[in-house]
């Protein structure tokens, strides 16, 4: 495999476990289902952003930066893991969070505060639009800030998932997977998995479940992912290029939009908890699992398939959604 080694800092516990969801598989009468447990990366309750931050924060510290700035929703898992990583490396952490300060900080926001992050409320601008202002203010104070893009999704963040696929490969037996299903939202995970699959020459289908309608995004999400995969390939000296028909982004499950929990997510949360004792999160992984359940019921995925569900984390936000989740349970 053509692959340049990129340096990183250690922030989590790897490899994350790979397990079989045999109870869920047999209850559904569907495919064999495996799960990659990136909810167990260990960094302040874990998640897929730990992988990206290992590369991003190596870059930040090697450039001598003393503060990091990133952005997300109020319940951003990315921001919480960034706050933890910054604490570990003794960097100042600034988070531009969408919305307004809630009465009680719960879930990820509670953890951001505990971890010592400085919160900048950004109202409707939850995708980092206010980062440049924060950057300039820190510079004026004599700081050397480092900007981590929304969701950590640039070439370094995506590269972490090239590496993650190699990690997975070493854990799998010789039976090939047919599909990998995962939540796709800022694109780094998706782009990295696409590139990793190409470099490892795998035949399985990557099914990204789109989490965010992204109506206001300047670049269509599939285009963004393809470009990011190309740029990540370039970064590691690979000539791989991706085309529009190579991306599978499933947009059927966005429901009422980002962070709006509906029946699909509730059912997926309950089923996974009750058959496997595993907790998903209401925003990302329950939506993706809801998509997987639907594809099994619709016969898109059958007992002939061998599907891996990538658990990308997010469970701390469960508590912030308590009121919605308690209804009807
Ligand atoms: C960020 C996140 C994702 C999506 O990963 P991207 O690389 O942003 O597409 C999925 N699940 C959880 C829990 C996340 O926090």
How much helix, percentage-wise, in residues? 25-40%
Unique bound compounds = pyridoxal-5'-phosphate
Q: Provide the number of structural domains.
A: 2
Strand order of the largest sheet: 1-2-10-7-8-9
Count of helical regions: 11
CATH class of the largest domain: Alpha Beta
Overall geometry comes to globular
CATH topology of the largest domain: Rossmann fold
Described by strand count, sense and barrel closure, the largest sheet is: 6 strands, mixed
Per DSSP E runs of 2 or more residues, the count of β-strands stands at 10
**End-to-end separation:** 48 Å
Architecture of the largest domain in CATH?
3-Layer(aba) Sandwich
As residue ranges, the low-confidence spans are: none
Helical/strand content category: alpha/beta
What radius of gyration results from the CA coordinates? 19 Å
What string gives the helices and strands in order?
EHEHEHEHEHEHEHEHEHHEH
Overall pLDDT: 96
Fraction of residues in β-strands: 5-15%
Characterise this structure:
The model has no long low-confidence stretch (mean pLDDT 96). This protein folds into two domains: 203 residues, Rossmann fold (3-Layer(aba) Sandwich); 104 residues, Rossmann fold, CATH 3.40.50. The termini are far apart. It is α/β, with parallel strands linked by helices. The protein has a six-stranded mixed β-sheet with strand order 1-2-10-7-8-9, with helices on both faces. The chain has eleven helices and ten strands. It binds pyridoxal-5'-phosphate. The site of pyridoxal-5'-phosphate has 21 residues, from helix 3, strand 7 and helix 7.
């Amino acid at each position: 495999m053509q692959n340049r080694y990129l340096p990183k800092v250690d922030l989590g516990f790897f490899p994350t476990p790979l397990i079989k969801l045999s109870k869920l598989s047999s209850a559904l009468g569907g495919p064999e289902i495996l799960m990659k447990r990136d909810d167990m990366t260990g960094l302040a309750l874990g998640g897929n952003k730990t992988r990206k931050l290992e590369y991003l924060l190596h870059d930040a510290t090697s450039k001598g930066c003393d503060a990091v700035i990133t952005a997300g929703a109020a319940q951003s898992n990315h921001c919480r893991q960034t706050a933890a990583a910054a604490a570990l490396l003794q960097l100042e952490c600034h988070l531009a969070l969408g919305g307004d300060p809630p009465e009680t900080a719960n879930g990820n926001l509670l953890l951001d505060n505990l971890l010592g992050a400085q919160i900048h409320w950004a109202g409707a601008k939850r995708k980092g639009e206010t980062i440049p202002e924060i950057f300039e203010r820190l510079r004026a104070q004599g700081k050397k800030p480092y900007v981590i893009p929304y969701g950590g999704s640039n070439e370094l963040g995506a590269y972490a998932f090239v590496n993650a696929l190699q990690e997975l490969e070493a854990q799998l037996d010789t039976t090939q997977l047919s599909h990998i299903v995962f939540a796709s939202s800022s694109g780094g995970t998706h782009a990295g998995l696409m590139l990793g699959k190409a470099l490892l020459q795998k035949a399985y289908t990557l099914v990204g479940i789109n989490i965010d309608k992204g109506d206001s995004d300047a670049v269509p999400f599939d285009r963004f992912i393809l470009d990011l995969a190309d740029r990540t390939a370039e970064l590691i000296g690979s000539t791989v290029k991706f085309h529009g028909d190579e991306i599978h982004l499933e947009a059927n499950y966005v429901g009422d939009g980002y962070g709006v929990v509906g029946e699909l997510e509730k059912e997926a949360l309950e089923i996974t908890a009750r058959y496997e004792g595993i907790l998903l999160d209401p925003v990302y992984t329950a939506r993706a699992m809801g998509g997987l359940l639907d594809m099994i019921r619709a016969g898109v995925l059958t007992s002939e398939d061998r599907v891996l569900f990538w658990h990308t984390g997010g469970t701390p936000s469960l508590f912030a959604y308590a009121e919605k989740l308690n209804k009807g349970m």
